[in-house]
Amino acid sequence: MDRPAVRRRVPLVVPECGLGDVPLAVSLWLVPAGGVVLAGDRVVELVSGGVTIDLEAPVSGRLVSQLVEEDEPVTAGMVAAEFEAAE
Question: Is residue 31 part of a domain?
Fold first, then answer.
C-alpha cells in the first residue's frame, strides 16, 4: 500500500525590519487560510507607526494556517503563518 505524499511545511517568519524597538502589528491578511499562493505573492501587511511592510509567500502552495490575528502584535523571528509547499 502506498503512503500518501507528505507535503513540506514552510513557516512565514517575521523578519528583522530594522525599526529597532518600534512595535509591529498585523494590519491585514491578504490571503485567507486555505488560499493558494505563488512564491512572492503578498500574504500579510504589518504596520509600525505609519510604515506598512508586506510579507510575501516564501513558497508556492497553500496557506495552511494564520498563527497571528489582525491587530495582534508581532516581533522579529515570530512565525506568523504556515504554508504547505506545492510539489
Answer: yes
Asked if residue 4 is part of any domain, the answer here is no
Judge contact between 56 and 42, C-beta under 8 A.
yes
Do the domain assignments include residue 3?
no
**C-alpha pair distances (Å), 31 with each of 13, 38, 45, 47:** 16, 11, 10, 17
For residues 63 and 16, give the distance between their C-alpha atoms in angstroms, rounded to a whole number.
22
Say if residues 64 and 9 touch (Cβ distance below 8 Å). yes
CA dist 33 and 11 (Å) reads 14
Domain CATH number, residue 56: 2.40.50.100
For the stretch 10-52, pLDDT in tens is 999 999 877 666 789 999 999 999 999 999 999 999 998 888 9
Q: Could you tell me the three cell numbers for 40?
A: 512572492
